[in-house]
Specification:
The chain has helices at residues 28-36, 79-90, 110-118, 141-148, 168-177, 196-212, 245-252, 257-274, 294-299; strands spanning 14-22, 54-60, 63-69, 97-103, 126-131, 156-159, 221-229, 234-242, 278-286. By secondary structure, it is of the alpha/beta class. It has two domains: 14-177, P-loop containing nucleotide triphosphate hydrolases (Rossmann fold, 3-Layer(aba) Sandwich); 196-299, K homology (KH) domain (GMP Synthetase, Chain A, domain 3, 2-Layer Sandwich), CATH 3.30.300. β4 (97-103), α3 and β5 (126-131) form a beta-alpha-beta unit. The protein is globular, with a radius of gyration of 20 Å. The two termini are 29 Å apart.
């Protein structure tokens, strides 16, 4: 197997890891995708979309920034939730910087304060990123900004819109300038450290979340069973796990239309990822209470990270 080549970094090169934290649904994954310039994290209107620590890699001539997108910190209701929150809270322990993302279209809330309090003793550069400012009513702008002033006093406050890109370049410049001098951690042409199979599964899960919204929100997992790469076509076999027969029926839909829609949108997304044609076959299986099963969580790759 040929390992990727990591070249020596030039003199004065900066590199490091920045953890992205925040409440669910404040736009962390959308912002990471915008910063990297590639789709490395799935997005949906549903909260708690991100389940794994995803590393997005941005390499420029002067620096390499690795953004670690974490699950939103929330009150867990099952073992899966406990694992996700634990991993989110430990993600900043060895980071070179921390980005606390908040919803800048509304005033600060108790959830924002809870996360900010956990960062007060972390001695690394911090940024308080007010996202969604494009949605903020102009007449309340000063009031909303003031509500965040006391949230994280040591942090550099910046306003951005992950949706339209405003303020993003200023954020990148600020974060990269605070990175320590260091090597390339990844080859310069990589934009994520996640394997293609993982991204394929996430693309399917994204379409499920978008198509079903609250009907099958977090009771779903996706396993990529097999990938066969041909000269002109990549064949992908995937299994969707749900917890109840009713959820399976929702995903299949009337005369199979829901599953057909999910499959079509997922296939198109995979073709962009692979830059080639994809044949996607999806099966649905019921695994009762899989989110409460430690063995099942381990099998699916959800483990506590230290």
């Amino acid at each position: 197997m040929n390992l990727p080549i990591v070249p020596p970094a030039p003199s004065g090169f900066r590199s490091g890891f920045a953890t992205v934290l925040g409440r669910p649904n404040v736009g962390k994954s959308t912002l990471v995708n915008r910063l990297i310039g590639e789709k490395v994290a799935i997005t949906s209107p549903t909260a708690q979309t991100t389940r794994n620590r995803l590393r997005g890699i941005l390499t420029r001539p002067e620096a390499q920034l690795i953004l670690v997108d974490t699950p939103g910190i929330h009150k867990p209701h099952h073992k899966l939730g406990e694992v996700l929150v634990h991993n989110a809270r430990t993600a900043f322990s060895s980071a070179d910087g921390v980005l606390l993302i908040v919803d800048g279209s509304v005033p600060a809330g108790t959830g924002d304060q809870f996360i900010a309090d956990s960062l007060r003793d972390i001695q690394v550069p911090q940024w308080l990123v007010l996202n969604k400012v494009d949605l903020r009513p102009a007449k309340f702008a000063a009031e909303i900004r003031a509500s965040y002033d006391r949230l994280l006093p040591r942090a550099v406050p910046l306003e951005v819109s992950a949706l339209n890109g405003s303020g993003v370049e200023d954020l990148l410049t600020s974060v990269m300038s605070h990175l320590p001098e260091g090597p390339y951690y990844y080859p310069p042409d990589l934009f994520t450290d996640q394997p293609e199979r993982f991204i394929m599964g996430e693309l399917i899960r994204e379409q499920i979340l978008r198509a079903t919204r609250e009907e099958v929100p977090h009771s779903v997992a996706v396993i990529i069973e097999r990938v066969e790469e041909g000269e002109h076509l990549t064949r992908v076999l995937a299994t969707i796990l749900v917890e109840r027969d009713t959820q399976k029926a929702i995903l299949i839909g009337k005369q199979g239309q829901m599953l057909k829609h999910i499959g079509t949108e997922s296939r198109l997304a995979m073709q962009k990822l692979l830059s080639g044609k994809v044949y996607l076959e999806i099966f649905i299986k019921v695994r009762t209470r899989w989110r409460q099963s430690e063995s099942m969580l381990r099998e699916l790759g959800y483990r506590r990270e230290d």
